[in-house]
Each structure stands twice: as C-alpha cells, then as structure tokens.
Design brief:
Layout (H helix, E strand, L loop, with lengths): L1 H5 L7 H21 L8 H23 L11 H25 L9
Helix pairs in contact: 3-4
Length: 110
C-alpha cells in the first residue's frame, strides 16, 4: 500500500493486491527454481544447494530489512532450521526433476 501511494497509484482493493502479489511470487519462484536446471551434468545439484540455502536464509533475513517485521516464531532455532530446510528441499526437488526429465544418455560408439 505504501508503495502504491509513493508511486501515485490508486489504492486497489486488498483482494486485487493479493492476487497480483501471489501471481508475482509464483512467476519469480518459477524463474528462480527453473534456473537450477540450466546447464549440463551435475552442476545443477551444486546450484540447488546454493540457491536453496540462499532462499531460506533470505526468507529469514530480508523481511525485517524491508519493513515486513520478523517472520513468525523466528526466535526459535528449530523454526529457522526448518525454514532453510524447506527452501533447500524445494531446490533439491527442482534439481531431481530436471535430472529425471533430462537423463544423461550413453554416447553411442562410432
């Protein structure tokens, strides 16, 4: 809402803002996790580890920095660990799906 006010835009109903935010989140996450599958070989697993961990840490660290407050129950180590694990699991699932859809094929002898 503050961003809309700053941009001089009319305030849209809350349901409309929610739908646009959800659509943007889905598109951004699709692009983010699809980037794991780029390239050949085992590099996708390394990207999955790095990007999944980065997303989990970002989910914990960024909200207070951008004025959204602290994530719920983030004072507990277990909650922070599960948050990072959730994002890491999503990234590893993306790498697994990419590996399954593009299996390495043996090179035919000439």
């Amino acid at each position: 809402k503050q961003s809309l006010d700053a941009a001089g835009q009319d305030n849209q109903p809350r349901a409309d803002r929610y739908r646009w935010a959800l659509a943007g989140d889905i598109v951004a996450n699709t692009i983010y996790y699809a980037s794991i599958a780029r390239g050949a070989g085992r590099a996708k697993w390394g990207r999955a580890l790095v990007l999944g961990t980065a997303a989990g840490v970002g989910a914990l660290a960024l909200p207070p920095l951008i004025g959204l407050g602290r994530p719920p129950n983030s004072q507990f180590v277990s909650t922070r660990a599960m948050t990072v694990a959730l994002y890491l699991t999503g990234a590893l699932a993306s790498a697994a799906a990419a590996s399954y859809m593009n299996p390495r094929r043996p090179v035919a002898a000439a």
